Structures are given as C-alpha cells and as structure tokens.
C-alpha cells in the first residue's frame, strides 16, 4: 500500500512538472473549429502626434484560437513611441525604417553613461545620486540601460513586463508589426492584451475590444437585479481609476476609450515621496495631467532625440549581430525539448546581456534558397536564445511570381502570416479535408493557420513577402510534398496501397518533385536547390 501511494505521488509530480514547462494555455473549447478562415485587416486606428497605431480585433475567432493579438505601429521622423510594458510577451517585426529602441529589464544595471568631462568615464567614477539637502544645481550625468539600433527586417523579442520604447531618427517612416502572445503562461491576467503605459494620457490600443467583449457577455446573460453584472463594483463607485473626475465628466462616453499611464492613479503625495521631488509640475506631467489630445502614444521630439550610443567605425548604423554559427547548442539543451524553459545555466543568468533582436529580412543570408522560387529565413531559440523564454519564433519568406511553397503543416505551433508586400493565392485545409481558405492573401492582411492545418501558397506578384509568427520557440514543419516530405519518406508499398496506385505511379508521387520547400514555376526545368 505504501509503495502504491508513493507511486501515485510520483505520478502526480511528473504530471505537474510536465505542465509547468508548457508555455501556452489551452484556448476555449471549440475556438479552433472553423468552417472557413478569413484574412483579417486592422479595424481600428489611433492617431498620435508622431504617427499612429492600428489594431486587429482580438475577439475574432482566428485570433482567439491562436491566443494572440496583432497591432501595427507607424512612426514618422523624430517620433518616439513612449515607454510601456505588456501582460504577455511580444515579437516585433520591423517592416520598414530604422532607428533606436530600448528594453528595461528589472534589476539589470545601467551600463550606458554620459561622460563627466571630455572622454569616457568608468563606472566606478560615477557620481552618487543627489541626496536630500544637497545643492540642486549640481548637474547629474545621465545613465541608463543599453540602447539598441534596429533596421528593416529585424525581429525584436520583448518579454512580459519589460518596458519598451522605440524611436525613428530617419526621414523614412518606421512600420513595426507586433504580435502579443496572450495565451502564454506568463500572462496571468485575462486573454486581452494590455498596455501599461509609463507616460502620457492616451487611448489604450485594445481597450475598445475588451469593452465590446464585456458588453457582449452582459447581453448574453439573463438579467437579474441581484446578479454581479447589474451591481457596480465598489472601486467603480468610489474611485476614478485615473484620479481625474473633471476630465471624465467633460469627455462623457468617449472617456471609456481613454487610458491614463501607470502613474496617473497614484496621488501626488505618493509620487513626490517616491521620486524625491518637490516640484508639483514634475508630478503633474508624470501623471499625464498636462497632455494635449493630439500627443497620444507617439510624440514628436523637437530637434530630435539625443541618443547615447557607442561610436561605430565600421558602420554608423550597424549594431553587431549575434553570430549563430559561433554558438554550439549542446546535447543537454536538446534533451530539454521544444517549448521548455530548461534549467541550469540558461537565459535566466544572462538576461541583462541577452541578444534581443535578429535580422531575418531579405538582405541577409537565407536558410532556404531557390534562385527561381524564393527564400526563407528563420529566427528561433537556436539562433536567438531569448525566444526560448518567450516561447515564440518567426520566419521571413520571399516567394517569386508563380512559385509555390509546398503543402505543409506546423506540428507544434499556430502560424500567423502577415503579408508584407505583394499577394499570393493561399489554400488551407483542416482535419476533415475541407478547404477552409482558398483566396488571395493581399498586402497588409493577416491569416491565422492553426496548428496541424495544412497550407500551401502560390505567388501572384513578382515578390510575395511575408512574415509568419509562430507560437513555439522551435516550431517543427512537416512538408507533405517534395524531397524529404512525409510522402517521400513513406515506403513505396505503403503509398501504392494507401492511394490505390500501381507501383510506378506511387514512385512518381514520391520522387517527381526534387525540391524541398519552394517549387519554381512549372515551365522551368528542375534544378538543384542551393
């Protein structure tokens, strides 16, 4: 009996241990049951002084199935996306432009410091911060965490709760597409993406969808005067969540879509003591009280932002890239398996100096290349280690006119395909053999391909470029046609008897396509793939 009890406890621990390394929560029941998939367009735009933010509705069934939310940010010249953090990890792909960004990792030191005089100053020479009663006229030198350069084609990884900012210092607009993984286990709130703004007093990106969902749920419930939904919550009756009753009264119904920053709800007395400032103007600006309606989440920096960044002799705008070939992925890492946080000497011990971006754009050496068909570049936890922590990855594809990427499926991830440029005819098939999508995917549209659904696409333009966000840090792709595909690796007898074909035709099905992923237009003769 004692042995049986011990075995039961061991089994429980194994089950709990296995579930603890899973990155993602399960979607709601029937969330991934589709009769038809739809390519989605952004349906909301929030204008700001220095640009705008567009959002896709996370209440759409496709996004609910994948457990993600999508937004697109446009920054004009000298525009700053003010700092914020989120309740779930993000992947941000730079579709266009270049500039600077920063991530503020809690507990990590300030490693960038302004010089006190001519030349550089070491960290040990850093002057102490001013204490109360000291001469306030004494100038303090600025110090902060690392500032990164970004360029077109970069993929930026932003962990949960890490503050992030973005700045455009060029004439070309910056266009950044952001995926937020709300089903990630790091998100212990609800399934809506939340932006915790650190500055400003502007509309929340996804708040309107949250309100729509709340109203829809209330309408679907039978009314009762005693139900919790019919009674205002205590905090709603007594407090304004932003501490600004006058503005709420003036703005009326539109105020529901507004959102203060994280300091707006604290009283001035708390903030004065916390920051050790006695200037009420500073505190008012911190709380967003002196904001104009036009400023929004993106502000224009008059005269440009002064950025402290190392001088680069070899290239003014090039930050040193992580060299994936120099990292050897050891056998212990392999045993941990896909989607696992792992233990021991991992990313947790080096987060302050971790690489947070990788370029997967068209100007870099691709992982898959066919000179007549296209190219593919991938970022996963093997070449950008921080993605293991996030449980996400991405790939950039470029498909030439009339070329095809073969039918394939992701064994362990949803794929969220965002069309960057051009258009392609895409087909998606579900577990019942039904074609749930058979349309042209156009630039700026998003298509969610659920896990194990088969997808194939044929370019309708000279170049169809896309980025596919994946909900696993090391997604596994199974090709259904071509060299080394599922069909190619079946025994010939199995193919012949499964499809009722003679051996010769079964051999043709297995061997006629020598290409692995990209298939050139049919009029071109097969060639060796580089």
TrEMBL record:
Bias type Low complexity, positions: 117-126, 221-232
Regions of compositional bias (Basic and acidic residues) in chain numbering: 143-152
Per UniProt, the ranges with Acidic residues bias are: 317-331
Which residue ranges does the record annotate as region Disordered?
112-152, 208-265, 312-344
| Keyword Disulfide bond carried by entry | yes
Q: Which residues cross the membrane?
A: none
The protein's GO terms of the molecular function aspect are: nutrient reservoir activity
Domain of life where this protein originates: Eukaryota
The record's annotation in InterPro entries points to: 11S_seedstore_CS, 11S_seedstore_pln, Cupin_1, RmlC-like_jellyroll, RmlC_Cupin_sf, Seed_Storage-Functional
Alphabetically sorted, this entry's keywords are: Disulfide bond, Seed storage protein, Signal, Storage protein
Q: How does it assemble?
A: Hexamer; each subunit is composed of an acidic and a basic chain derived from a single precursor and linked by a disulfide bond.
May I ask which residue range the UniProt record assigns to the signal sequence? Answer: 1-20
Function of the protein: This protein found in the seeds of many leguminous and non-leguminous plants is the source of sulfur-containing amino acids in seed meals.
Q: What is this protein's record name?
A: Cupin type-1 domain-containing protein
- Decide whether keyword Kinase is in the record: no
């Amino acid at each position: 009996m004692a042995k049986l009890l011990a075995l039961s406890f061991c089994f429980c621990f194994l089950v709990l241990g296995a579930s603890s390394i899973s990155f993602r929560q399960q979607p709601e029941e029937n969330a991934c049951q589709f009769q038809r998939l739809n390519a989605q367009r952004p349906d909301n735009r929030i204008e700001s002084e220095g640009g705008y933010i567009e959002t896709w509705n996370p209440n759409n069934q496709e996004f609910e199935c994948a457990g993600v939310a999508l937004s697109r940010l446009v920054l004009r010249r000298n525009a700053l996306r003010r700092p914020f953090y989120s309740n779930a990890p993000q992947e941000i792909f730079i579709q266009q432009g270049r500039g600077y960004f920063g991530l503020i990792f809690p507990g990590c030191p300030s490693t960038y410091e302004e010089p006190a005089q001519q030349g550089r100053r070491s960290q040990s020479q850093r002057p102490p911060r001013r204490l109360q009663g000291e001469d306030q006229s004494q100038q303090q030198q600025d110090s902060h965490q690392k500032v990164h350069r970004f360029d077109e084609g970069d993929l930026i990884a932003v962990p949960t709760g890490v503050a992030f900012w973005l700045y455009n210092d060029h004439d070309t607009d910056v266009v950044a597409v952001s995926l937020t993984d709300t089903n990630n286990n790091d998100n212990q709130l609800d399934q809506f993406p939340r932006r915790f703004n650190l500055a400003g007093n502007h509309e929340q990106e996804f708040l309107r969808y949250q309100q729509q969902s709340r109203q829809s749920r209330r309408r679907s419930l039978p009314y009762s005067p005693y139900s919790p939904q019919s009674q205002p919550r205590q905090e709603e009756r007594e407090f304004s969540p932003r501490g600004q009753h006058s503005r709420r009264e003036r703005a009326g119904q539109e105020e529901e879509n507004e959102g203060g920053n994280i300091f707006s709800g604290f009283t001035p007395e708390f903030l004065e003591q916390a920051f050790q400032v006695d200037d009420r103007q500073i505190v008012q600006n911190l709380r967003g009280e002196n904001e104009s309606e036009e400023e929004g989440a993106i502000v224009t920096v008059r005269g440009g932002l002064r950025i402290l960044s190392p001088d680069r002799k070899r290239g003014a705008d090039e930050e040193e890239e992580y060299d994936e070939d120099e990292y050897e992925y050891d056998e212990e890492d392999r045993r941990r398996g896909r989607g696992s946080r792992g233990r021991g000497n991992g990313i947790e011990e080096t987060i302050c100096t971790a690489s947070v971006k990788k370029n997967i754009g068209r100007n870099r050496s691709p992982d898959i290349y066919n000179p007549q068909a296209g190219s593919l570049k991938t970022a996963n936890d093997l070449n950008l280690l921080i993605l293991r922590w996030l449980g996400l990855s991405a790939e950039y594809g470029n498909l030439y006119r009339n070329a095809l990427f073969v039918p394939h499926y992701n064994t362990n991830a949803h794929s969220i395909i965002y069309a960057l440029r051009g258009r392609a005819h895409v087909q998606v098939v579900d577990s019942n053999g039904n074609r749930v999508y058979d349309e042209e995917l156009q630039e700026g549209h998003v298509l969610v391909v659920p896990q194990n659904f088969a997808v194939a696409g044929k370019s309708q333009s000279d170049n169809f470029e896309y980025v596919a966000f994946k909900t696993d840090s090391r997604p596994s792709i199974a090709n259904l046609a071509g060299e080394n595909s599922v069909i190619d690796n079946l025994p010939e007898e199995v193919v012949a008897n499964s499809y009722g074909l003679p051996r010769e035709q079964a051999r043709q099905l297995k061997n006629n396509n020598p290409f692995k992923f990209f298939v050139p237009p049919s009029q071109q003769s097969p060639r060796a793939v580089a």
